[in-house]
# Entry
Amino acid sequence: MELAYIPSPSTGVIHLGPIPLRGYAFCIIIGVFVAVWLGNRRWIARGGKPGTVADIAVWAVPFGLVGGRLYHVITDYQLYFGEGRNWVDAFKIWEGGLGIWGAIALGAVGAWIGCRLRGIPLPAWADALAPGIALAQAFGRWGNWFNQELYGRATDLPWAVKISEGPNRVAGTYHPTFLYESLWCVGVAVLVIWADRRFKLGHGRAFALYVAAYCVGRSWIEYMRVDEAHHILGLRLNVWTAIVVFLLAVVYLVLSARLRPGREEIVEPDRGPAAGDPKTVDTDADAKDAQAKVEAGDKTPSLVKAEDAPKDTAPKDAEPKTAAPEDAERADAESAPGTASGTASEAKKV
# Structure
């Protein structure tokens, strides 16, 4: 008798008139927004400018979607190019099927292009986005729940997921591997945030930590799944992929820590006005004209800005200096009407 289980939705799509609203797509969209939001906060905290993460995500996300779909189609080609299959289904991304390995690989290419255009280092941007990517995966895995796919072996545990009869699936209760991976990804995000604050990870090491930690969880979760997959030496292909990627991430962590310790001090330098900018040209011309007038003897060139002029640092209420006695006598003598300078000199001698 089934006492408790996680029910599955009767359908993964709701039609709003002629427009289909798919749960799988909503989960991915929510994940992308969360990743960009958290990545933007982390980027600003490291000295970057607001909006940079979103600008680069415009390149990374489309590349990532294409890469994820390509990996899935290539590794599960029999689903689309086997006997009795329709190759057009390979383009139906809304029906599920995105490989995280391809999404990260090709998404990194798109991110590299965006970083090059903005003049910032890709590793620094990846470090800022790393925990957000893990949270995006946590949300995205719930798309498998809407599609009733990628579940594990049969079980009667209270948290088993209820699967209904359908194409390529048998009704029953199974391990909710989508839930396991979702919770694991949340833990990975927390781990990366903590380690980044504790050890000041930089130069791509926060991203490498995310990759390594995710691969550890993916290997045992993948081992529980019962959906069709290619096997090598008794292990599923994605398990081997997780092992290889984990080793590469650990090697990067070790080498990066030795070769480039610490964290980047500047992640997004302020390049200032570009060469040839009209404002820059006008400012330079004004400065040259002002200098020429000063050299020609004009002490008050009109092009010199008020804020650039030397300021009198004396207090407003300060008393004026008392003139020296000799200067005072000379001034009195010269200002007196009809008095010659020689007379002033004789008066001085007296």
Notes: DSSP finds twelve helices and six strands in the chain. The CA atoms of residues 110 and 243 lie 25 Å apart. The first strand starts at residue 13 and ends at 16.
